[in-house]
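Weekly puzzle thread! Below is a chain. First person to post its structure in token form gets bragging rights.
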Amino acid sequence: MSVTIDEDYRPREDEPFMNDRQREYFRQKLLNWKDDILKEARETLQHLQDENQNHPDLADRASSETDRSIELRARDRQRKLIA
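Winning reply:
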């Protein structure tokens, strides 16, 4: 059964729990979230490829590697959400 919902639809408490409209609303919400995660992953990959710099200072290098590590861990957690 195909259900269409308006852009401004929001689930209400007076509706039956997880009716067809609510299921479609949450399905769309999850699909949009998945698209956002995949987009951010592509941007991170592009950013890491573009930022292939050699830092002469050890502190700069350590800071850059820490930032890269944090970003990769965040993307890995997001990847696990959609796996």
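Puzzle host: Confirmed. Bonus trivia for everyone else. DSSP finds two helices and no strands in the chain.
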